[in-house]
Design goal:
The chain is an alpha+beta fold. Helices cover about 50% and strands about 20% of the residues. The longest helix is centred in the N-terminal third of the chain and has 75 residues, at about 90-165. The two termini are about 70 Å apart.
Length: about 375
């Protein structure tokens, strides 16, 4: 009976020991597991899925019937390679019409320039000619004045002699008529001089009287001609402005003509062609979906780690699929959406932390495929 009791006590002790061992192992595993949970891993390793930029390519500001497609879906294309071509007949005709208008406008401008040149030369010659005529008329006026003066003297003598009967009545009448004619000649010469020198200033007229030169004299007829030339210049400026406008329209048409051919903006892979040949395409409507050769991945870090990541900083990442190291450049660091905030367990004494998104672009994107997972080891 005593032996049975001792066996029972031993079994109880063994059971207790086993339970203590199991409890210790469980506690150790829980501790290890807690150090390997998502929160702990997130503090050590940051991973992201490699993504390629997708580009919607459209016919910029032009539309029309799709004439031909030069590529197929899944084709790899180089920057500048032709993807699609729109019908160009209407644009080509508009360009031809505008080119004809430009040629006509250029001819009109040349004609106007020649007319201005001729008119300017003629005006200059006319001015010099009138200056010489003014000098001639002034000389004629002085001669007429001298003749009038002489005629007055002769007529004055005739008055004295007629009273004494020293000359005949016919001689007296002749001298009187000569004086009258001389006066009329002087008046006529003065009128001619005033007419041709119209517009001259008193100072210029005084110069003519003192020097006999009309050089530099302002003349109304010449000023009117110069005003007409100025109006011709204004018309020429309007014609040149119109020509510039036509050339601008031609540049726009040529640019739109080039835009009828859709080219790849960068290297990449054709994911989707949105139109078939013969279909109408609206301006600025996406026509091709291109997977760019630019590739990036996003990692998320908490606010305690974000200071270790700067824009344009170079980082090294491990490609999980190939176990290779690749280099990348951080493009930007920004606050992540609220769903990415890291909710840490308060049992560990850690408060909730705001997460930040770090975008990394690969330096050599061709070394990896989109969809691969890359990891960045935290310092």
């Amino acid at each position: 009976m005593r032996k049975l009791h001792l066996n029972t006590d031993r079994r109880s002790v063994r059971l207790i020991i086993i339970m203590l061992i199991l409890l210790s192992i469980s506690s150790f595993l829980i501790y290890i597991g807690s150090r390997g949970d998502a929160t702990s891993v997130a503090q050590r390793i940051k991973s992201g899925v490699l993504t390629a930029d997708e580009v919607n390519i459209a016919f910029e500001n032009v539309g029309g019937r799709l004439l031909s497609r030069k590529v197929k879906e899944s084709d790899f294309v180089k920057k500048g390679q032709v993807l699609m071509v729109l019908d160009d007949k209407d644009t080509a005709l508009s360009i031809q019409k505008l080119q004809a208008q430009i040629q006509a406008q250029e001819a009109s401008i040349r004609q106007q320039q020649d007319a201005i040149k001729i008119q300017t030369q003629a005006c200059r010659l006319q001015e010099i000619s009138q200056w010489r005529q003014i000098e001639q008329f002034y000389a004629a006026l002085k001669a007429a004045q001298s003749a009038e003066k002489l005629a007055k003297v002769e007529f004055g003598r005739s008055k004295q002699l007629i009273n004494s009967k020293s000359i005949s009545k016919s001689a007296y009448d002749t001298n009187e008529s000569a004086q009258s004619q001389a006066t009329q000649a002087r008046i006529q010469a003065q009128r001619q001089l005033d007419s041709i020198s119209l517009g001259a200033t008193p100072e210029q007229k005084e110069k003519l009287r003192t020097t006999g030169s009309a050089e530099g004299m302002t003349l109304t007829a010449i000023e009117n001609t110069r005003a007409n030339i100025k109006n011709m210049d204004n018309t020429l400026s309007e014609m040149k402005a119109r020509l510039k406008e036509l050339n601008t329209e031609l540049e726009i048409l040529n640019l739109n003509y080039e835009r009828l051919t859709l080219r790849a903006p960068e290297d990449g892979k054709i994911l989707k062609l949105l139109y078939q040949e013969g279909e109408m395409i609206s301006p600025n409507a996406p026509a091709v979906l291109l997977e760019s050769s630019r590739k990036y991945f996003d990692i998320y870090v908490n606010e305690k780690q974000v200071l270790n990541y700067k824009e344009n900083q170079k980082v090294t990442a491990n490609v999980i699929a190939t176990d290779e190291e690749v280099s990348g450049i951080i493009r930007f660091v920004t606050a992540a959406p609220s769903f990415a905030d890291l909710r840490m367990t308060r049992e560990h004494g850690q408060a909730d932390l705001t997460m930040f998104k770090v975008r990394v672009y690969l330096e050599k994107p061709e070394s990896c495929l989109a969809g691969m997972t890359l990891e960045v080891e935290n310092d």
